[in-house]
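As the next step, I needed to go through one protein, both as residues and as discrete backbone shape codes, included below for the reader:
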Amino acid sequence: MFYISIASILFYSVCYVYGNASNYQIPTPEFIVSIHAPNLQIILPDEEGIELFYFYGRLTKANGETIKMLMDTREKTNGAWMLFNSNVTIDVGDSITYWLYVKKSGVGYRMPYEVYHVKSVIGHWMTTTTTEYNPMVTYFTDSTRNPDQVIVQDPVNLDTVHETENVECKVTCENELKNMTNAVTTMQLHIESLEEMIINILQKLNQTKTVHPELLLQ
């Protein structure tokens, strides 16, 4: 009977959250990544009634390492809601899986899980090129040679074909591994979010004998 009550409460909680979320959408935040402190800034545009901005995320490094990040603020900075983190090192190629919670006019709203892919870092000197890499072409890196000069390798050469297959396999495997890592990270965030919800419900159950769903959602 106790477990049925818990299940009912969770059901009402989910309906309450998603019912309110349909009436208001949290603005998309802006991410600023830098090699200097603060290394990460998350900026949410101000809207009338916002009184709390909460960020729950997990940084996934290119090598598979994950770092949990929790930040919140109840005060605006320069007319916007800003969060700062100076304790992480973020590089191009990393990704941040996150969800947001905003309290607006006394009502809480949650943004579904999103993924931010780090494509640039302020402070890094970067050079870009529009030339597409071709594994069948050798590109000279020696400064004494003409940078536009290329040598097309013989595609019939078995060694060349074998090397090309390895390159393609390596790229494919790395992409698949990164996708799997992001999926696992998202699942971990879901689990931790449910654990927090259950803990809050159990705490409120201990505080009252008569349980009303609307009380648990205050």
Notes: The mean pLDDT is 70.
